Amino acid sequence: MAEPMRRALIPIWLATPSRFANMTQPAARGVLAALALLLAVMVAITIAGLSASPDQADTAFYAAIVEGVRHGGNYYAVTAEALRAGGYPLAPFAAFALPTPVVIQAALPDIVAMAILCLLTAAVAFKWYARVQPALKARGARAMVALLLFVSLAPLLRPSFAPLPELGAGLAIALSLGVRRYDRPLDTVALGLAAAVICAVAMLYPIVMLAFALVEQRRREALGWAAVLFVIVIVLAVHAQAVAQVVRPLDARLFDWTGWLGLGAFVSAATSVPALAWMPGWLAAPIIGMALFGWATWRDPLAPRALATIVLTALLIAVFSREDTQHWALLATPLLLTGLVFVPDGLRDLVHAAQDSRRITVTRIIR
């Protein structure tokens, strides 16, 4: 006999029930256990001091390269000298960031570059507010979305962050997701290409989007993302050849790409970039965990794509980042905290499903 369907609770903030509204009791208890474990691990990592601060990112290093190119230097020659001066390895070629953001910023006055950054950040905020608003029915929830977008994006407008390629790439990824429409994939694909050309690490985003397009059998979109990856491979090949021209035999010291800093590196970076830095780590860390849970809650095709991008960024930082590369978190932080708006409905539905409070009603029929 089929198990009767549980009636979904009336949503608190959302216009429609969350993804966990009709989950079975065993599955709901499993998800709750996994969530509790994730939050406990995040708090334990923070208390144990196993995380490092993203403030260790050498923003002055990138600013010096911008200035060198602005004064007529060749990007690869200037970067090679900066790497040697900082004691960084010059091999493999991935030790050199892609020249796109540096060349653009060097061609513009600082005030113009900051104005463009402000406009891009504002576009992400307005686009995502407009995208999430129809999913919410409560006025307080809409105000919360605006607040979450503000505390996520406003701290990114630091002049010291402007030279970081991950900042522009992260905003391009957020905008790409925000403008996504099934009938118009070109805008999303173009912004995804821009993100990957700005920062090679952002290549994970087109990979995520291609995987979803293939699973959902969206052939046109899949072809677009495949073309993006093809272009990126060509760009990286040209980049590698240019790097080879400036590397000397004594520079060929391999970069250690297996930092193994662990989940704590992402937790620290994610809590320090948005406006959570004033909170103690033991409080900010579970907020990041609940934001991830919130993205898993929203029943919308954008939610799993955003969640997958954030999770892959976290894994990338946990396994491959070093103390001076944790600004990779900027690829995920523009949207991370927005997931908190979906938490109340998702958590209530999950607890309700875990309790399984359905009752059997017996009706006597008199003939």
What does this structure look like?
The structure is a single chain. The chain is an all-alpha fold and 367 residues long. Helix content is 60%, strand content 0%. It is built from 15 helices and no strands. Helix 9 packs antiparallel against helix 10. The longest helix is centred in the middle third of the chain and has 26 residues. The protein is globular, with a radius of gyration of 23 Å. 42% of the residues are buried.
Uncertain stretches of 5 or more adjacent residues: 50-57
Query: Mind summarizing the main beta sheet?
Result: none
Level of helix content? 55-70%
Strands, count: 0
Quickly give the structural class: mainly alpha
Mean pLDDT: 85
Record the SSE blueprint.
Layout: H1 25-48, H2 59-70, H3 75-85, H4 100-106, H5 110-132, H6 139-153, H7 165-178, H8 185-198, H9 204-215, H10 219-244, H11 263-272, H12 281-297, H13 302-320, H14 333-336, H15 343-355
Helix pairs in contact: 1-12, 1-15, 2-3, 2-4, 5-6, 5-7, 7-8, 8-10, 9-10, 9-13, 11-12, 11-13, 12-13, 12-15
Features:
367 residues; mainly alpha; 15 helices; 60% helix; globular
Put the structure in a nutshell.
By secondary structure, the protein is mainly alpha-helical. It is about 60% helix and about 0% strand.
